[in-house]
Amino acid sequence: MVILALLPILFLIVALGFLKMAGWKACPIAAIISFIVAVACYNMPVPIAISAALEGVALACWPILLVIIMALFAYKMTVATGGLDTIKQMLTTVSEDKRVLFLLIAWGFGTFMEGMAGFGTAVAI
To answer: What is the DSSP string of 11-80?
Structure first.
């Protein structure tokens, strides 16, 4: 019975690691496998399984969408208030080398987003 519960995870490991399947294809297949295993092998009622699947989708999407919406809000706010022009002017006085500016912007933006929202926001964006 434990192997049946591990089947979706094993499928993801094989599909992503060995078959080089795209994540957006492999994850729905793993969700369907887990749904079938829950209903067929563990006698979970279908309405409860559907409810659990929908709750899982909602709990997975909500933090990501919240982070993206807040990042867009912060960007639009800095553009509207003129803060982005101030940042651009300050960064151009640091160095003429575009590589150095790129590293400063990447590091600074990641740190800014982490401080603003936390929990891996820069990685999500």
So the answer is: HHHIIIIIS---HHHHHHHHHHHHHHHHHHTS---HHHHHHHHHHHHHHHHHHHHHHHHHHHHHHHHHHH
Q: Rounded CA gap, 78 and 114, in Å? A: 17
Q: What is the pLDDT of residues 30-82, one digit of tens each?
A: 999 999 999 999 999 999 999 999 999 899 888 778 878 887 888 888 889 98
- For 87-104, the pLDDT digits (tens) are 888 878 888 888 888 888
pTM here is: 0.60
As a dihedral over the C-alpha atoms of residue 18, residue 21, residue 27, residue 28, rounded to 10 degrees, the angle is: -130
Boundaries of every domain in the chain: 1-44, 62-125
Instruction: Provide the angle, in degrees to the nearest 10, between the axes of the packed helices 83-92 and 46-81.
Output: 70
CA–CA separation, 29 and 8 (whole Å): 8
